[in-house]
Amino acid sequence: MARTGSTDAQLLHRLDNSTFTPRHARIYLTAVAGHFFDGFTINLTGFVLPGIIATFAITSSAAGLLSSAMFAGMLVGAAVAGVISDRLGRRYPLALAILVFAGFSLLAAFAWNFPVLVIARTVQGIGLGAEIAIVLPYITEFVPISKRGPLVTLATACWLIGLPVASAIAIAIVPTLGWRSMFFVGALPLLVALAVALTLPESVRCLLQRGRHREAHAIVDQLARHAPGAPQPAASTAPAHGETAGSVRNLLRGRYFRYTIAMWVMEVCAGAFLYGLSTWLPTVLKSQGIGILSSFAYTGIITAAGVAGAIAAGQVVNRVGRRWALAPAFLLSGLLCLVWGSVSGTAAVVVTGALATFFGSGVAGSTLFVYASELYPTANRATGLGWAAAWQKVGGLLMPVTAGVVLSWHVSSYVFFVLFAVISGIAALAGAIATLETRGKSVEQIAAELGGAPSQADRQADPIRS
Fold first, then answer.
1. Which one of 103, 118, 356, 437 is most buried, by most CB atoms within 10 A?
2. Is the pLDDT of residue 331 over 90?
């Protein structure tokens, strides 16, 4: 057993410290293609809703059900798929998740009545949430350590850019081809699902977890290239065996408890920020005297700033670490929300709003997914990420309703921005109190650190925990 552990440690050392090869790039681009279509498919609702209302003669309340049904499906998919992936591997569950949300896009396109459309979007939501839970752990487990932060945040940026792309495609095809055409575009990921199933390798760490050493060695031999000056493998980098795969209980045991609770709090706040703004910002801008079409355009600009923030986060997390990217970014976003609500003039509103989303949904939101994808051991990584994503959807379900209730009181629109400042402040506090620094560590080193006593260096870096 000791010999096997040593061999596994050497294998993962080669994987973690490899240069980024063309094969890495092909695997990454295939996985990220599915993630982009996930973001695209989620953001279809706003652009097809007017046509759906006209086609099926439904009320505004019924139309709201369509979006809620999808988010409910996403919550279930994210929570369940992580557990399944930790028990069955990454490759085929990821392909199945993409197949589900792409395949049911065809059902939505051919929906002959409104209940069928709601069912199609609900099941799509399960696939969408499942894809998020699986793809980021998969990326985390095969890319070199030095590229892990930038590539996971870039994947998040590809997801975020789904909104402006959906807007552009809707403008191009919906006026002539109708709302159903958007769901036909949403079926294109069927090709991505096929590519994932046929061309992507299984996660090396999942293979080692199941004792499939020969397959793991074959994949690393094809993938990894020696990086000059790479450190030698440490004894603590062997993968942990014998863990209960896909156990939610393990997310809350021992030293994981405080980090998991803090992460879930941050995820709820991040989801509330992202989905609350995208739902209500056009209405709030309109109430401030901005025309409805202009409010749509300005909302697009403001939310697109999150894409730039996610790309920037890739460099920030490599330089200052996860902990010092999360709390300050959430705090800056909250402070900017307070300023945002008090400024006047179109340029000031757009610039301040763009900066708030740059730090909030961009830097902080994408860093949070990097952190969630590397905090847990292989046996529970997708479960941890899936539950984190599920809590984000809880925020996405609660905040639009909360903001709607607050606005129904006919209070000043400034209260709307204060609400977002408060949730950003809560996230910043959680990030400052209980975030483990994971920069530059293999996922096995992180698991070993949380499974045993903290090192002297860790106690110095985290005096609160000590």
1. 356
2. yes
Q: Is the pLDDT of residue 416 over 90?
A: no
Q: How far apart are CA 396 and CA 394, in angstroms?
A: 5
The predicted-structure confidence for 288-311, as pLDDT tens digits, reads as follows 666 655 666 777 788 788 889 999
Q: Which two tokens stand for residue 252?
A: 């809350």
Predicted local distance difference test score (pLDDT) of residue 236: 42
- pLDDT of 427 reads 96
Number of domains in the chain: 2
- b vs e for 157-194, b when ≥16 Cβ sit within 10 Å of the residue's Cβ? bbbbbbbbbbbebbeebbeeeebbbbbebbbebbebbe
Distance of alpha carbon 408 from its chain centroid, rounded?
Answer: 31
Nearest to 131 by CA among 308, 385, 398: 385
Mean pLDDT of the chain: 84
Using one digit for the tens of pLDDT, what is the confidence trace for 185-233?
A: 999 999 999 999 999 999 898 888 888 889 988 988 888 887 555 555 5
Place of tokens 């990894």: 224
Contacts of 257 (CB under 8 A, 6+ apart): none
166 and 296 co-located in one domain = no
* 4 occurs within a structural domain: no
Q: Note whether residue 241 is domain-resident.
A: no
Q: Are residues 282 and 404 in the same domain?
A: yes
Residue 147's CATH number = 1.20.1250.20
Whether 239 maps to a domain, the answer reads: no
Rounded distance, CA 445 to CA 451, Å? 10
Residue with tokens 């293979």: 207
Q: Is 211 left (phi over 0), alpha (psi -120 to 50) or beta?
A: left
Q: Are residues 327 and 189 in the same domain?
A: no
**pTM score:** 0.81
Q: What pLDDT was estimated at residue 228?
A: 56
| Identity at 7, one-letter amino acid code | T
* Six token digits for residue 318: 């490599």
pLDDT digits 0-9 by tens, 141-182: 888 888 888 898 999 899 888 877 887 788 788 889 988 999
What are the beta bridge partners of residue 226?
Answer: 18
184 and 279, same structural domain? no
3-class SS of residue 260: helix
d(CA 337, CA 421): 5
Distance CA 372, CA 376 (A): 8
Q: Which residues contact 89 (CB under 8 A, 6 or more apart)?
A: 202, 203, 206, 207, 210
- Identity at 455, one-letter amino acid code: S
Would you say 140 and 443 are in contact if contact means Cβ atoms under 8 Å apart?
Answer: yes
Residues 326 and 397 grouped into a single domain: yes
**Rounded Cα distance, 404 and 24, in Å:** 45
Query: Same domain, yes or no, for 213 and 356?
Result: no
Instruction: Give Dmax (Cα) for the chain.
Output: 71
